[in-house]
Write a structure and sequence with these properties.
The protein is α/β, with parallel strands linked by helices. It has twelve helices and twelve strands. It has two domains: about 1-190, inorganic pyrophosphatase (n-terminal core); about 195-315, Diaminopimelate Epimerase, Chain A, domain 1, CATH 3.10.310. The chain is globular, with a radius of gyration of 20 Å. Bound molecules: manganese (II) ion (MN). Manganese (II) ion binds near residues 29, 82, 106, 125 and 126.
Length: about 325
């Protein structure tokens, strides 16, 4: 990866006008990697824009207000972080206008279709890749870089709880804390800042938990109407999967969200079983233990189909 880092650092030094973007429905890793890359490029004297297809959460990290909604700009080089270009939503036509495209990601299955591709599925977060890159670059990691990188790592490891939490992750987190990242504030912002309305909706949703195979398979299915009754936007409820997987004995956790009539987004999580193959089977992708897919049709029919496939997986049968 050392040659790859050198190639990447050379590309970041070479051009003048950069567009930094990430996936739809931004999460702490996508936002953290954008902010850190923004700060790095500004520091080496570049003109930089950050853009996101969807509204961003109100994290109190530096430069958050500089993440722009979609607009046409005149730039040279697109940096796509934490996803492949096809997952950037309505930014894709703008990315296609780039002279050069740089892709930095840790998602398994990213085809690496950009001019320069740095895809490392072994890494817990895109922020881990950037951390290593900036260490190689030998720059001073100030608060403006350390805090968003730390937050991205906390986000993608579920607060250092998921299977991707390695000694390397802790070493990076310790170094970033030395550089100014604040663990207590990060945890509070990411995990303990839920609107009251969300907590009340959570109570309603958790009553709908379903299980099979002696609770080894746990799922939650929410219809568009369920979200509407509580004034919830289903796009911001992906975190419900974390509650599904909390059930004791759960090996496969699945969250079904009806985003719009007939459009169902499915999240898969596991601590030990390759649920990536399940997501791929239904046209999605992601990581070995955290993946997703989107299907069209009637919610109950989709739930039945996916739960049947998950059952087969748990019984060791072919999908
Ligand atoms: Mn990520």
């Amino acid at each position: 990866m050392v040659n790859k880092q050198a190639e990447l650092l050379a590309a970041l030094a070479k051009y003048d006008r950069y567009l930094i973007c990430s996936h739809e429905n931004p999460d702490p890793d996508s936002i953290g990697s954008m902010l850190a890359m923004y700060q790095y490029l500004r520091r080496i004297g570049k003109k930089v824009w950050m853009m996101c297809a969807d509204p961003i959460p109100d994290f109190p990290w530096p430069n958050m207000s500089r993440i722009l909604p979609f607009q046409d700009i005149d730039y040279q080089t697109a940096i796509i972080l934490d996803c492949e270009p096809e997952r950037t939503g309505k930014l894709l036509p703008l990315i296609k206008k780039a002279e050069v495209t740089i892709n930095i990601d840790h998602h398994k299955g990213n085809p690496g279709s950009c001019t320069i591709n740095y895809i490392d599925p072994e890494q817990a977060a895109t922020c881990m890749i950037l951390y290593q890159l900036f260490k190689t670059a030998g720059i001073d990691l100030d608060y403006g870089i350390a805090q968003p990188l730390y937050a991205g790592i906390v986000g993608d490891t579920g607060g250092f709880r998921h299977a991707n939490t390695t000694a390397e992750v802790f070493a990076a987190a310790a170094d970033l804390t030395t550089c100014g990242a604040v663990p207590s504030v990060t945890a509070q912002v990411l995990f303990e800042s839920k609107p009251l309305e969300f907590m009340q909706f959570l109570g309603y949703a958790l009553a709908k938990l379903n299980t099979k195979h002696y609770r080894r398979l746990v799922w939650l299915a929410l219809a568009e109407q369920d979200f509407a009754e509580f004034g919830m936007d289903p796009r911001w409820c992906d975190q419900l999967i974390d509650y599904v997987r909390m059930v004791k004995g759960c090996e496969v956790a699945i969250l079904f969200r009806e985003m719009a009539p007939g459009i169902v987004r499915i999240g898969f999580r596991s601590n030990s079983i390759d649920i990536h193959q399940l997501a791929v089977h239904f046209g999605g992708g992601g990581h070995l233990l955290a993946a997703g897919a989107q299907m069209e049709g009637e919610l109950s029919a989709i739930v039945e189909e996916v739960i049947n496939a998950a059952s087969k997986l748990l019984e060791g049968e072919e999908l």
